UniProtKB/TrEMBL annotation:
Residue stretches making up the ABC transmembrane type-2 domain: 123-347
Membrane-related topology note: Multi-pass membrane protein
Predominant place of localization: membrane
Membrane-spanning ranges: 157-179, 200-223, 235-259, 266-287, 322-342
Name of this chain's protein: Transport permease protein
Length: 354
């Protein structure tokens, strides 16, 4: 069961680390400045530049062989020397989201050339000299690659979101055993032994809780050790959040059982409560894309607080700074256990849970 969330996370995010743009280049200008611009573009990381001809560009775009194309028309070099960059066109059928990075880098480079041209006062020879000096300058820009953790965090969020749903459903199914034992009369035979109703309930609750914790820890271990995915937070901190949610899952499942008179009622009530709240809390998609009303409702759901706590830990917040989040998670667990206990204690016949 824990593998479901991991598989979904890989489907959603697994390709993103290997993606690179393929851009075609068409040079109509045939000038040194244009050639220098093209050489600069070819040095960009995660971008594959291909020099194409006009007749090849359209076919390459429509067939998907390239993501976009940059066309340098006649007059590009002259426009740089005139400090009015123009005569360059970026084409893509996939939209701005694909070519935005290339466009920003190209325009930045064109701005640099324009500054040099302004210093040369439009003189080609001075511009060439300044450009060579610029390339051979003593100062060097050193760059350090920073690891992009957004994909790992996204995969963790998705996997945990599905884990939360599975934990709620599993806890409900395990708590349903209480009614199953009653319907099959096994429970009453147990009461004929030294086992009391209270002991039976405590045992069921502890087993349910142990299964939830094992399920959560197994998922986190598979993510970190099996697939080498960084949680973006120290393991034990993520474990604390999931253990608290395990308590919430068990408490909610007991509450559902306490208000149900049969196994069919448990199933119906579980579907009525669990799936809508899971969707509203952002387990399947970011809360930010939902309407404002739905976002407000999600603030009253334990799933939202568990995900929010994990996200804030990933962003560098300390556990001490999130004391309110943890208190709210503990409060949810206590409320569910108290409701279940009260409902069971108010039954006319506690031995039959009815």
């Amino acid at each position: 069961m824990p593998m479901i969330g991991i598989i979904v996370a890989f489907v959603a995010y697994g390709d993103q680390n290997s993606q690179s743009l393929s851009i075609g280049i068409i040079d109509h200008d045939r000038q040194p400045i244009t050639a220098e611009t093209i050489d600069y573009l070819k040095q960009m990381d995660h971008v594959d530049m291909k020099v194409l001809k006009d007749k090849e560009m359209q076919d390459a775009l429509t067939s998907g062989h390239i993501d976009g194309a940059i066309t340098f028309d006649h007059g590009y070099a002259d426009s740089i020397l005139a400090q009015k960059p123009a005569h360059v066109t970026i084409t893509s059928i996939k939209g701005e989201s694909v070519t935005g990075f290339v466009k920003s880098m190209l325009y930045q480079y064109m701005d640099q050339l324009t500054v040099l041209s302004e210093a040369a006062d439009g003189d080609t020879h001075k511009f060439t000299a300044l450009y060579k000096d610029y390339q051979q300058a003593e100062f060097q820009l050193q760059t350090t690659a920073v690891e992009d953790t957004s994909v790992d965090k996204g995969m963790t969020y998705t996997a945990v979101g599905f884990l939360i749903m599975i934990m709620l459903l599993s806890a409900s199914n395990l708590a349903e055993i209480i009614l199953k034992e009653k319907e099959e009369r096994t429970y009453f035979r147990l009461l004929s032994t030294p086992i009391t109703a209270k002991q039976f309930m405590i045992a069921n609750t502890l087993v349910n809780l142990m299964v939830m914790i094992v399920q959560a820890m197994l998922t986190l271990l598979i993510l970190t050790k099996g697939f080498d995915i960084s949680l973006g937070v120290v393991f034990w901190k993520a474990a604390v959040v999931m253990i608290l949610f395990a308590l919430i899952s068990v408490g909610l499942s007991l509450t559902i059982v306490a208000f149900s008179g049969s196994r069919n009622a448990v199933s119906a009530l579980s579907n009525l409560i669990i799936m809508p709240t899971v969707m509203l809390s952002g387990c399947f998609w970011p809360v930010e894309i939902m309407p404002k009303t739905a976002q407000k409702i999600s603030e009253f759901l334990p799933q939202r607080w568990a995900l929010e706590t994990l996200t804030q830990l990933q962003e560098g917040s300390k556990i001490g700074d999130l004391y309110l989040n943890f208190l709210i998670l503990i409060a949810f667990a206590l409320v569910f256990f108290l409701i279940a206990t009260y409902k069971f204690s108010r039954n006319n016949n506690i031995n039959s849970f009815s």
